[in-house]
Structures are given as C-alpha cells and as structure tokens.
Hints:
The chain has helices at residues 19-55, 63-69, 71-90; strands spanning 2-5, 9-12. By secondary structure, the protein is mainly alpha-helical. The protein folds into two domains: 16-56; 60-91. The longest helix has 37 residues, at 19-55. The mean pLDDT is 78.
Amino acid sequence: MGILLPGSFRYTLNLEPPQGLERLERLERSAAVERELRSMVLAVLLVSDLAADVRTPYGRYSWMMVLLIGPGWLVVTFLLAIFIARRGSRE
C-alpha cells in the first residue's frame, strides 16, 4: 500500500526497504570507486609526464636556455610591472 503524491513520487508505508535500494547503494559505491580510480590514474599520468619533462629539456635546448626563456621571462615581466607601477605613481 502506498500514497501517491503530486509529481509522481510514491512513498510506501511499510518499513521494509525497497528492493532497488540495495542495488542503488551498490551502484553508488561502484561510482565512488570509479571516481577514486580515475583520479589515481590521472595523478599517475600527470606525475609520469612531469618526470619525463624534467629528465629531458625541451627540444634541443640546453637547460640554461630553458630556464632563461621560461621562468626568466616571468622575472623580467614582474620587474617591468613594478617599474611601470612605480613610474605611474609619481605622476
């Protein structure tokens, strides 16, 4: 016996769990395991890719050139931004 409410929701009056509840709980657990597994696989791929990038420099460039071109431009841009900001505040 059950009560039909608007919106096609059905609530049962018996105290026994519905038959599909166990199946739903299993599906939720398997979805959680799948999310965790997917996260672990992506983390392993990321770490292995970063390790491969660190072992060999980009293309045929030396490590010195990689450091000058990569982080070097960040430092130059930062210093230029400070210079422009200080120059603008004097006016």
